[in-house]
Amino acid sequence: MGKAARQPATYDDVLNAPPHKIAEIIDGELILSPRPAGPHSEAESALIEKLRPPFHRGQGGPGGWIILVEPELHLGKNVLVPDLAGWRRETMSAVPKSPAYFEIRPDWVCEVLSPSTERMDRGAKVALYAAAGVGQAWLVNPLLHTLEVLRLSSETPVEWTSLGVFKEEDRVRADPFAAIELDLAVLWQDVEP
Which residues form the domain of 80? Predict the structure, then answer.
């Protein structure tokens, strides 16, 4: 006798997930991830601190973006929670009051990689972002002190093009936020060596 086919995960599975986990649905499967560890949280916090004033608020930069921490994205049947996501105001002019998730695909996502999530972040999640038409992605590894910048190609099949891998104390102007110089050292300077 064969195994019974597993039912695809539903949004109720996400809503009923343990509160100490990040719940996502990837290709019909419920994925539960631990909350971020210290180096991950520090890199995410430093990025939001550096990007929001010039791009979200227009303070010392061009503005024109909505940048959010850990938004829940509903992209087709998939439920994804990137560490950061940004929408050009032409894509999403204001944060909707409801629902508690976003069905408008972002223009940029950032995944801060952890040992427990890197395989999923680099594999299935970036593929789903590409399929949804997210134009830019950053992959930050706070343990290896790297930032990888990806741009969606206009070729068919749709693929990511790496615009570079930056490390340690590099100062970068990385798309789509090349209007400012980002000192990568701030992403890990307060983490124990």
Answer: 36-187
* 9, 12, 74, 172, 173 from 147: Cα distances, Å: 32, 35, 26, 10, 11
Largest CA distance in the chain: 66
Is residue 19, in this structure, part of any structural domain at all?
no
Segment 73-119, tens digit of pLDDT: 999 999 999 999 999 999 999 999 999 999 999 999 999 999 999 99
Nearest to 39 by CA among 122, 116, 140, 143: 143
Chain position carrying tokens 């992209």: 75
**For the whole model, what pTM was predicted?**
0.94
Pair of tokens at residue 133:
């038409």
- Number of compact structural domains in the chain: 1
pLDDT score of 1 more than 60: no
Tell me, what CATH number does 135's domain have? 3.90.1570.10
Task: Give the mean pLDDT of 135-151.
Answer: 97
| Residue in the block written with tokens 């395989």 | 119
